[in-house]
Task: structure prediction
Amino acid sequence: MSSGEIPEYGREFRSRAIREILKYLEGADISSIEFEGPEIAVYIRNPKFILENEEKIKELAKLLKKRVVVRTDPRVRKSKEATIQYILSLAPSDVTVDPRDIQFDDVIGEVRVLADKPGKLLGKGATLRYQILAETGWRLEVYRKPPMASRVLESIMRHLTITSAERRRALMEIGDRIYRDIVVGTKYIRLIGLGSFSEVGRSAILVDTGESRILLDAGMSPSSNSIDALPYYWVPEFRLEDLDAVIIAHAHIDHIASLPLLFKYGYRGPVFVTPPTRDTMLLMLTDFIEVTKKEGREPLYTLKEIASLMTRIITVNYDTVVDVAPDVKLTFVNAGHILGSSMVHLHIGQGLFNLLYTSDFKYYRIKTDRGRRLLPPANEDFHRVEALILEGTYGAKEPQSREKAEFDLLNLINKVSESKGKIIIPVMAVGRGQEILYVLYTALKEKRIPEIPIYVDGMIYEVSALYTEYPELLAKPVRDMMMYHGENPFQSPNLVYVNDEDKRSEAIYSQGPAIILATSGMMTGGPVLEYFKHLAEDERNILTFVSYQAPGTLARRLAEGEREIDIYEDGQVKRIKVKLSVIPIEGFTGHATRSELLQFLRYLKPKPKIIILNHGEPSSLLSLGQAIKESWQKLGFETPPEISIPENLESIRLYPRNTKVQIALEY
Ligand SMILES: [Zn+2]
Ligand SMILES: [Zn+2]
Result:
């Protein structure tokens, strides 16, 4: 290796990096240099240096090909009380800052302020940031105060502050592992399906490069309570002590629910997620424990495991490259499925191979789309992709268009409004709940439905509050509406968030029409059952489904026409004679439909050589595979891609490929 080139890992990299940092940041009065997880943190005693030399810090990061963060040495930071006072004294009189909205992160030396007018607070050229840093040693970040308070985010922030010393120790341990010397090198690349291959549920895929092992998703099947709901974690290839990293694509139960279990059995490595996935995931996992207990079952793990998971979470924004192992770099890109959802791009072996895991995603063409969308479609443009793991939930099915689905829903609402009935819409708390609220909000604005009350029950409020924390990640029309016009689709005079029995009774017994959104989406539990019990026997009412109903669930039984339902209540069976109309609406799905999957492949750049289909019923995956086989030329592939539909426990060799063997088998 020539003297100019800097190796990307190992002891040699570390010592070269330290030498370059000392050279570049001379004058910063460096007190220590730490490898904290994927980042290199440089602690300095001269805070003025940071802002005067931002260009130099950027150059350094480019040279080292790593994230370099420069922080003040904790010993030169002013006390938190003094810093709060200083910030308040500098805020212009027309900007409101509540002292409770000033929070500190000791690990990174950051003070976060929520303000109603962030731009005004920061001043021209962000002068305030400079002043605060120079005077107090804290790096200032200002965010727009979201219109809804998120209790989850508050408690996460509190927890992160309390555990900051522990988190820093954990990050350094993780850094040691990421920047270790290569032991054997990238000898091969293979995947092992631990779950979600030829099925929907318990997503978990092991990526093994010989040098390192990465787990993509750690889910559980929502439809089962037994051990079969877990991925095949007991195969000999999967050893927690050998696992370098867990990467979570999004916060749905079938992708996250077994993650705390890994911590219960001794995993202490990093968990990479986007910031909204962190928030939603912690909310969902805590709720998952509660729900299990309420159903009288023993949860698989406790809050203790969630706490230890929290010290190992590393958040990564979209489109930012980070090292997760000596030979693996990760980039999250938008997947358009739910807030924070991502496709996972892995760059393996310093230029050797690139794998894209779509996980669950939504795709549509912005130019021609006419739906009311909360999220932008998935990204389709990449640097390199040799192999693609493609979800195929809707591989065989083309539901009606989103536009038509919205039209149908508004029609039903107009119908109940005329008959003075009530419409119940069971929804999942994450994703569909917010999508429907947005559709209702725009319909009210455009006067396509009358001004009737909308009751919202279940965790939907908490999750909607999270959506308002990240307006920059929403589809452009929503983003503009929220950031520049002060509108909030999750709050309007018609909207009532149900948080006690009184409001619930009001929703059920009030005279006049109403819309009721409640969890759970498949009616397997949650407040929706209360509404159903009380409203089912009135024929003016309507029950509509806006998402998939799994076989065996109450939602599916009703959709298939069952009209006598037994519900258990305080140890007694109550028979309900269903007289309301049950009308499922298709087309609101958060997954790419069959035509969208093919369209995604058509616009995907560059084209992969290998396509692995997962996250779908076998028949869906077969049908999708067949469609790709028949139309690869139309989709813009130069050579036919190799398509495989493996089952769980199969191991798929991605690299190296012996083409001679492949050809021999094909003919
Ligand atoms: Zn999902
Ligand atoms: Zn899924």
Observations:
- Residues 250, 252, 337, 360 surround zinc ion (ligand 1) (CB under 6 Å).
